[in-house]
From TrEMBL, chain B:
This is Branched-chain amino acid transport system ATP-binding protein. SMART domains: AAA (SM00382). It comes from Fusibacter tunisiensis. SUPFAM superfamilies: P-loop containing nucleoside triphosphate hydrolases. The lineage of its organism: Bacteria, Bacillati, Bacillota, Clostridia, Eubacteriales. It comes from the Bacteria.
Amino acid sequence: MRAVSRDYEAARLMGINVDTIVSITFFLGSILAVLGGFLLGLSEIMLIAGIVAAILGALIAAPILRLRDDYLAIATLGFSEIIRVVFTNTMSLTNGALGLKGLTRYTNVYYSWGLAILVIVFMFSLRKSSYGKALMAIREDEVAAESMSVLKAEGITMRFGGLTAVSELTLEVPEHGIVGLIGPNGAGKTTVFNMITGVYAPTAGDIKFDNRSILNIKPHRITERGIARTFQNIRLFKELSVLDNVVIANHLRLESNIFSAVLRLPGYVRKEKAIYEKSLKLLDEVGLLAYQSDKAGSLPYGKQRKLEIARALATDPALLLLDEPAAGMNPQESMELMHFVRLVREKFNVSILMIEHHMQVIMGVCEKIYVLDYGVNIAEGTPLEVQSNPKVIEAYLGVEDD
Amino acid sequence: MIKINDLNVYYGGIHALRGISLEVPKGKIVSLIGANGAGKSTTLRAIMTLEKPKNGTIFYKDRDITLEKTQNIVQSGLVLVPEGRRVFSNLTVEENLILGAYTRKNAQVIQKDMEWVYGLFPRLLERKKQKAGTMSGGEQQMLAVGRALMSKPEVLLMDEPSLGLAPLIVKDIFDIIKKINALGVTILLIEQNAKVALEISDYGYVMEVGRIVLEGKGRDLLEDENVKKAYLGA
């Protein structure tokens, strides 16, 4: 899986020491939460101060916990209770109940409110400080990263002489999304795929992959960057085994020179073995392991499609373009394909853009759909929105024939 | 100011930079031109250590920064205006600019600098309280440059400042780049629009598929037959 999101780069580029800020925030949140728990345990009168401290501590630390994926931290927040228990029960540490009794001098309503206000003022002053600014920048950077799309086509147009195949299409595939592209035959859908994979250079507009423009980059380099594609007609090596089909797809990424390959030098042999294992693992994950030695051409149609998609996955893409994956499938196979597409998205962490005519599959699996007619985007939206759109019904859905 | 020596960077599985060497002298404007995918962006990102090189060195002011942390590099005066602008959409113009001055302490000087930036970009002053995400591409580019200027950089790296902008706005941006340089800021900029970049550059490097294939004075490159054919024609 290729990571698409950037690691708080915008914040770092402003000179913010992201790691330090994150650590400080975690500590700050924890200390506040511990203080809160301690106060709550100390006396019910300290309730106000205790609750304020505990809530603010959780508020400030929780998003950071999410950032760090650090679940141990949640356990640490529970220390507040442990500390209270230790304090009230360990004679040597606190002079026992007497020691704590000393503190009860301060447990009245005024001190409680006073402490609460102190904590709130402290937090507000933090916001204005450089620490607060840094935290704001880091949060903004995270929000921006979350809403970044894997693929963004901005106003792309494709003209072949006098013919306009695609006209000013803007299309976006969010990270881990499944997006559909539908429309009558000749609407320009495959042309869009060809523009994305660099086969055609758009006459106008820009295409950004991982926020970087991929215009005018050769197709094989686009694959290297993380876009993989399947085709309408299955292009498997029908005479080779299922396993070999996947191995070959992996081989294209094998970096070595002809000498080490021909002489079978140890480094090369090791890499080759790794590829075999990787391919077997891939077949296992897509449920084709049992067929590894079978001739690819002998597989039922539905499984051949799966294999083709598996081959595309062998290149470790971030974006998978599926060109009519359900073509020629019976209802049973289409259902399986729907599940398979979802499984692929989960297991391999890819984003998917698919062309399909099979309405059941598109409506069942896509989160957003773009409708193309004569190269123009006539509608876009969720499956429900698109299905009930009169323009779409008129141009395309009309009478369902299957 | 910047000296890159035989740098090799791998981006995913791709050999993105193949032993490149270049130099950016103090006070000059240097351009890195070439087609999309040539490795220009990767070069800037490597300088800011957003990408780790396999081998080779990067020197800034005679200091080896090849493995330094990005934030430390920024703090020593080397600032990048990234591709696609990357302003903070939910924050206002003003808040973005204030964040730009994060590495600096003196509030009064920061305020003065903010007024200076508004002077360079009157459009930003008009939209002071507007959320950055609601502005046009050109305005966001101005904000990105303004924000970088707020950190008082000694060297400014600019990644495709003209990308996606109307020709008139491109002219404005490049006039401002010249102005900034006149104030003493060293500039390294990468551009697909070779003409407009070379016109203001003291020196230029041409990149192709991860390698530097040609270099020379900006003026000379503009006249070079190969450059004209490949980058200045269409």
